[in-house]
Amino acid sequence: MNREIVVTGGSAGIGYAIAAAFVREGDRVTVTGRRESVLTEAAALLGARAVSFDAGDPEAVEAACAQLPDRVDVLVNNAGGNTDFEREDGADLKALETAWLANLRANLFTAALVTAGLRDRLADQGRVVTIGSIAARTGAGSYGWSKAALELWNAEVAREFGPRGITANIVAPGLVVDTEFFHGKLTAERQETLIGNTMTKRAGRPEDIAEVVRFLASPEAGHVTGQVLHVNGGAYVSRG
Ligand SMILES: NC(=O)c1ccc[n+]([C@@H]2O[C@H](COP(=O)([O-])OP(=O)(O)OC[C@H]3O[C@@H](n4cnc5c(N)ncnc54)[C@H](OP(=O)(O)O)[C@@H]3O)[C@@H](O)[C@H]2O)c1
C-alpha cells in the first residue's frame, strides 16, 4: 500500500509478525528494539529498516526520532512485556516501587513516549495501534495495571487525534506462544490452564494479533477508534 509504518519491538514475537504483515502489503516498514544484533537480523529477514533504541527512555526516544520516517502513516506501539519475569523477588517497599515502575516504563511509557515523539509526523487519516493485554482486565499485578493504564491513555490519544481522521486503538492479546514474552518461565501446566480458559481450546499465535492490527490500520477501519479489541479465543469476554 506504500505507507510508512513504524513497529516498536518489531524484532521478535508479535511485533515481528505485525511487521511481516505490513511488508506483505507492500508498505515501507521500520522496526525497532533494544538488542541491536537481534533487530538487525530481523530487519534483514523482513526487508525492513531497523532503528535501535529503548522506547521506555525519553532521551533515547528523542534521539531515535531523527532516524524515524518524516511522515508516519501507521504507528504500532508493540514494545513491552512483563518485567516481573526478569526480577528477583523482594518484599520491601523499595523493591515493589522498582518493580512497578519497571512495568509502567516497559508498557505505558514506551507507547506514550514514542507516540508523543512522532505526534507531529502522524499523517492525517493515520493509525495508532497499541498492544495491550488480557492482563489489563484479569489482573497479573503491576503488568496488568500498566496495560490497564494504557487503555485510558489510548482513549485520550483517540480524542486528541480524532479530528484529523487518525484512529487510536488497543489490541489486547491473551496467551500468545512463539514469543519471548515468558522468558522460558511458562510451565506446561500453566499453558494448559490458559488454553483451557479459551473457547477455541488453543493458544494464540503472533499472526492472530497481526491480522487484527492489519485491519485496524486499514482505510476501512476509519470509524473504529478509542477501542480495545480483545484477541484471546474467548478467554476473557468483553462487555464494554
Ligand atoms: N506473548 C503473550 O502471551 C502476550 C500476551 C498479551 C500481551 N502481550 C504483549 O505483546 C507485546 C509483544 O510481546 P511479545 O509476546 O511479542 O514478546 P517478545 O517476543 O518478548 O517481543 C517483545 C519485543 O519488544 C521489544 N522491546 C521490549 N521492550 C522494549 C523497549 N523498552 N524498547 C524497545 N523495544 C522493546 C523486544 O526487543 P528487545 O528486547 O531487543 O528490546 C522485542 O522485539 C508486548 O506489549 C506484550 O506485553 C504478549
3D structure, described in words:
Strands 3-2-1-4-5-6-7 form a 7-stranded parallel beta sheet, sandwiched between helices. The protein has helices at 13-24, 36-46, 58-65, 93-118, 135-138, 141-161, 188-196, 206-216, and strands at 4-7, 28-33, 49-52, 72-77, 122-131, 167-173, 228-231. The model has no long low-confidence stretch (mean pLDDT 96). It is α/β, with parallel strands linked by helices and 240 residues long. Helix 3 (58-65) packs parallel to helix 4 (93-118). The protein has a single domain, classed as NAD(P)-binding Rossmann-like Domain (Rossmann fold), CATH 3.40.50.720. The protein binds NADP nicotinamide-adenine-dinucleotide phosphate (NAP).
Kindly list the characteristics that best describe this protein:
globular; 240 residues; Rossmann fold; 17% strand; single chain; seven-stranded parallel β-sheet; alpha/beta; binds NADP nicotinamide-adenine-dinucleotide phosphate
Which fold does the CATH topology refer to?
Answer: Rossmann fold
Tell me, what's the shape?
globular
Name the bound molecules. Answer: NADP nicotinamide-adenine-dinucleotide phosphate
**Count of separate structural domains:** 1
CATH class: Alpha Beta
